[in-house]
Design goal:
With 355 residues, the protein is of the alpha+beta class. It has 2 domains: 204 residues, Trna Endonuclease, Chain: A, domain 1; 136 residues. The protein is 39% helix and 25% strand. The strands form 3 sheets. Strands 1, 2, 4, 5, 6, 7, 8 and 9 form an 8-stranded mixed beta sheet that branches. A 5-stranded antiparallel beta sheet has the order 11-12-13-14-15. The protein is elongated, with a radius of gyration of 24 Å. About 2% of the residues have low confidence.
Length: 355
């Protein structure tokens, strides 16, 4: 059994290790103190985690805790105490089943769960955490891309390491493309204070986070990436949208995503963004993402935007839907011009409301 000594001058006081009586207490600590998950030990430059859900429904079960980081990567945490017989085998199948369920989510599902749990807007909370180093457009895009790629971090949190579980997790991590981490949280007591000591096990050798390095988009690298991803006819349509943006937007914002390049159409003035075009041909609704919209009738404008798109593009558009369309779909249905007209109508609506 591990020993922890508190040394004060010449006096050494051993701390007593105490057992978690129930899994809920371990969940409480992780929920309140996400820094107990020491990802910095295994990923260089790992970002802080934000808890966005507890007992989140996932098929027939419920995930104990769900976290997210600045790169839109979800972390699922399942807690098990050593006294629970599921700690040896069942928990691995359980957390993999949760990951399979979550991989079918969209970014909107993440936002819905997070906003309900946080009782606030996820973008605003992340922006406060990042202190200005945050792009709502890139964040939402990264969430969707991670889910699409099945990029989800899995952590089994225990109070005491069980060797068969450690050996199984290590084996899986050595021969699979996903990774499950084991987090042991040891609980020691000193008078009225608790001392929690986290340790990670079962991980692959430390890696650098350079694969997720954010890159500032430019016209050059946007279309260079687009030509790698899309057919020539689609790239031509994207060039048309870029030309339209240069002519009609008051400001062009350039994304900083790691997975793909992007630019943002800002109407009227910087901060009032309308849509984002990604280098893989995806067009995303961005109306109301900026706090600048607080000075306007945000809900009214979103309703107007939804109505314009539904009428012009002949789709059933929901105002909270993030994904509008793909460029190839607009080209195939001869609706690229109608999309541009919807943008102009929204701009005119805002300008008339400011007068």
């Amino acid at each position: 059994m591990a020993k922890i000594l508190v040394i004060e001058g010449d006096k050494a006081t051993p701390l007593d290790k105490i057992k978690f009586i129930e899994e809920g207490k371990l969940q409480d600590y992780l929920e309140k103190y996400p820094s107990l998950i020491p990802l910095g030990e295994i990923v260089e430059g790992a970002s802080d985690l934000l808890c966005i859900g507890r007992e989140v429904g996932a098929g027939p079960g419920a995930m104990d805790l769900v976290f997210i980081d600045k790169d839109g990567l979800l972390t699922i945490v399942e807690t098990k105490l050593v006294k629970n017989p599921e700690i040896r085998r069942e928990v691995i199948g359980q957390i993999i089943e949760y990951a399979s369920y979550v991989s079918r989510w969209a970014a909107d599902d993440v936002y819905r769960i997070a906003n309900e749990y946080l009782k606030s807007n996820l973008d605003e909370v992340m922006e406060n955490m990042r202190k200005g180093e945050f792009s709502a457009e890139d964040f939402r895009s990264n969430i969707g891309q991670n889910l699409k790629n099945g990029n989800i971090r899995l952590i089994i949190a225990v109070d005491e390491l069980v060797e068969p579980l450690r050996a199984t997790v290590t084996f899986l991590n050595s021969y699979s493309t996903f990774e499950i981490l084991l987090l042991q949280v040891s609980n020691f007591e000193e008078k009225a204070r608790n001392v929690l000591i986290p340790s990670l096990f079962g991980y692959k050798p430390p890696t650098s986070s350079t694969e997720g390095t954010r890159i500032r988009s430019t016209p050059e690298n946007f279309f260079e990436d687009a030509r790698k991803r899309c057919e020539a006819g689609i790239v031509k349509a994207m060039e048309e949208l870029y030309g339209f943006t240069k002519e009609k937007a008051s400001f062009i914002g350039w994304g900083t995503g790691a997975a793909r390049r992007s630019f943002i159409f800002h109407g009227v003035k910087e901060g009032l963004s309308f849509f984002v075009l990604y280098s893989d041909g995806e067009i995303c609704n961005n109306v109301g993402a900026s706090e600048t919209w607080n000075t306007l009738d945000k809900e009214g404008l979103k309703d107007f935007w939804a109505s314009e798109l539904s009428r012009r593009l002949e789709i059933d558009f929901r105002k909270n839907q993030w994904f509008i369309a793909r460029v190839n779909g607009l080209v195939r249905r001869n609706k690229l011009g109608e999309f541009q007209n919807a943008v102009l109508a929204l701009r005119q609506q805002i300008e008339s409301g400011e007068q």
